[in-house]
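Re-running the complex after MR caught last week's input typo. The corrected sequence lines follow. Everything else is unchanged.
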Amino acid sequence: MAGNVTFTMIKPDAVKDNHIGGITKMMEEAGFRVVAMKKTRLSEERAGKFYEVHKERPFYGDLVNYMSSGPIVAMILEKDNAVLDFRKLIGATNPAQAEEGTIRKIYAKSVEANAVHGSDSDENAQIEGDFFFSADERF
Ligand code: DAT
Ligand code: MG
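Corrected-run output:
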């Protein structure tokens, strides 16, 4: 059964460029409810841990540097079929391939600075949500 939560981050460029509101509005208008939300900054070590699954990829070092380069906004979002519906809302990893009207098409600057993260499975949505939020931060 498809789960009803996903995890997202608004990435450093989008935060720096004042797009927290615009991006969150797109999420809410697509039917997602904000369960938990915080602005924080990942250390290099924490960014490395979050993206550990990619550690053998050639872009891992750049990704860790980028994701720890400035504040991000972390969120747990709720909706039926959350993981898949959210991946559709954000669009392809490379914004050049993202569909019109998707968050990445509108806000991403490059493959690396692609505006938002979205979990790729129900299992990872739980793991990633737990990485940032305790039980008493979820409503
Ligand atoms: P997604 O964020 O769409 O789940 P992913 O999990 O494959 O994509 O990769 C995680 C992040 O790593 C991605 O959001 C941006 C960066 N990335 C992926 N592929 C890349 C590439 N070819 N060059 C540079 N950065 C890349
Ligand atoms: Mg991914």
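None of the earlier attempt is carried over here. DSSP finds seven helices and four strands in the chain. Residues 54, 59, 63, 93, 111-112, 114, 117, 120 surround 2'-deoxyadenosine-5'-diphosphate (ligand 1) (CB under 6 Å).
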